[in-house]
Structure formats: C-alpha cells, structure tokens
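Justification of computing resources. Each target in the renewal requires a structure prediction run like the one illustrated here; the chain below, 417 residues long, is used simply to show the kind of job we budget for.
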Amino acid sequence: MKLTDAEKAMLAGDAGKVRQKAMELLVRYGEAVGAEKLVATNNVCGEWTAIWPLVCEFGLDGPETLALPAVRLLACQLATSLDSEYWQLQGATQAQYEAHADREVLNVSAGIQRLCTCAPYLASNVPVKGEHCAWAGSAAAVYINSVLGARTNRESDKSTLAAMLAGRIPCWGLHLPEKRLGTHLVNVVCAVESALDWGLLGFYTAQLVAAGIPVFNGIRQSPNLVRLKHLSAAASLSDGIGLFHIPGITAEVCSLDDAFGGGEPLDVLRFGRVERMLAYDMLNAGAEDSNVDLVILGCPHCALEELGEICRLLAGKKISSNAGLWIFTPRAVKSMADHNGYTCIISGAGGVLMSDTCPVQGRFMPRSAKVAATNSAKQAKCLSGVGDVQCWFGSTADCIAAAVTGYWRGGLNPVVK
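Resulting structure tokens:
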C-alpha cells in the first residue's frame, strides 16, 4: 500500500503504540482487500461499549492489552447491549449493569460520543455527500451510502476501532466512485407507499441480490426518512448490499444512465403485487400462534415522526394484560419524546419507551414471550435467532392493535398496480 509520510510515522510508532497497532491492523486489512491506499476519515461509528470494556485488544500477532487513548475525531457509539434505565426489565443483572455503566464512562472520557443508536443520523451524526466514513451497523451504513451519498463499507468493530484511533480507513469498495455503480435493476411496478411497503421492497431485494447495488426504477412518490430507513434496514439483510440508488431521489444519481454509468445491469428484477405478497408471506412464515405476548417497534430506532404515529394509534387505549409493548428510540429522540408528551402517552397506555439497545442487539426477550409482532422486516427476520420466538410482521397499526387486544389480526392491504 502507498502510505503518506504521516501514515508511515504513525505505523513506526511516532504517535504511540496504540495508534501504531491501529495502523498495523488497517494496513493488513487494506492489503487483504487490495486497497492501494488509506483515506482520511473524521466520522467513525462503532459498537465499542459492548465489545471494548476497559482496553482495546487488537490481537494481531497475539493477544495484547493496550490502554485506550483520547479520540481526535468524531467517534459515535452505536446501539449497546442494554438500556441504562430499563436494564432490569431487559433481564440484565446488577453486575452487568454496573460493568456497562463503567464502560460508558471510560468511552466518554476518551472522547466517544454516546449516541447509542443503530440510526446515528437521527441523533445528529448526518454525514454529507462524498464524506468518507467508517461505520459499523449494516442498516446505518446502507442508509448513509444510499440516501446521503456518504461513503463507507460495512465495517467491523475492530476496523472501526482502528479507524477511530488512526483517522484512516482502507480506500476500497464503496469509497471508490467506480464501485458505487448499480449492478441490478429492480423495476417497481406497484405503488410503494407505506413504511411496510418499503420494508417489503428491501426484504424482497435482499433475497435476490446476494451481492451488488440495486437500482429501484418506477418509484412514483418520493419517500420520507422513515420509509428510506425501513428500506435500508431490510436491504441490509443481504450481507452483500451496502448501497442502493433511486434515480432522482437518493443522493448520487438523477437517471438510470447515471446509476449504471452508461452500462447494462447484470440482472433485471421485478417488484409488483405478487412479489409484495410473497415477501410478506416469507416474513410471516414462522408465525402460527395468533396470541401475541410482545410487540416490538423501533428497528432501526424510531424517529420522532414514528413515535407520534404510535401515540395517535394508542390514544385512549390500554395495552392488553396478556401482551407487552416495547418501543426503541435514540436517547436524543427520547428526550424530544419526553417534551412532546409521547413518553407519557406510551407509558400511560402500558407500553415502555426504551433507548440505547434493542432485543436483537442486546439478545434479550422476556422469558414468557413466545410470540412477538413487529413492523420491521429486519426485526422480524432477526428475531428468529433470539430464543424460540415466533414473530408476526405487519404495519404499525396492526402491531398496536395486537398490543391492545393481545391477538394478531394483521394482513396485507391491496395496492394499486
């Protein structure tokens, strides 16, 4: 790899042993993926509270423990393993809570921002078009690449830790303009309007595009942040999707010709009424029992707009004694929800508004919960790995109705062709 003089000095240990180890990891990483150089980054997001307690352990040639030095760039904590307010409800022990709190204090003292969310763009970290970032968190990486036009690969905890310390990341993959061209054309031939529809579109695409950059053609109505959030999260279920384009809507392309760089797609897919229903059936294939124990909303974390919708649906209602309602949002958005009265409405109905984590990230569920419901395609897919839980997928209205009645009666509404 070609290194600058400053990078060579860091690699030689001039900036201390920790940053030297970070550079060693980044160089090995870059060589492994064929990167010609490193690129400077000032925006890093990782999951260090859960992974890096008191120290950083790079473990390159063997385990070595090094103290964490001060961070010199924007480094943001992604979602963590528990909510510091509702940790008991989530099933954590006193020892787990205290260790978690200690780690957070240490990270803050090093200069890491405690955004504690899987959607940092909801909590002040909104990178701009062309900005080189190093983000872990698959759904968040897809969102900033696609919607905002920032540049990041889907990084690991170790690579983001090294990037945080060195201010560099290998320049390969989605950092390169030529690697951001579309590969698959997805002709959308039915109206895609609700957040549920956008989640179904992303999920269906993720089943067919193992690796590539889908380009969605035929979108009739510009989606808002919430819909694009659900599309990004569902598309991220394919490990090989880090970016999508919607010509004229997302940041980088105005036309199909722009999206494919004047070339032809590798494959042409279709998303219509049949495919929409197929995706819905696939997401609900593992659910049989209509008695719902727990409704989970907020994957990725809820925006303020979503909390407002939830509160309108909850108005004058109470959660069933046979069910629970857990809603997840960033700390910053929860503060706004408090001021807007949303937290009181949710708690008054018998629900709980949490932050910092979610059942997938924290790997927790109530022991009594056997049947869950969610409005997130990603959550529905991932919950299958959290205990022996059946999960229903549907609209936010379907989910609130299930929380109030204790029963799942959701279904897929017809759409215009």
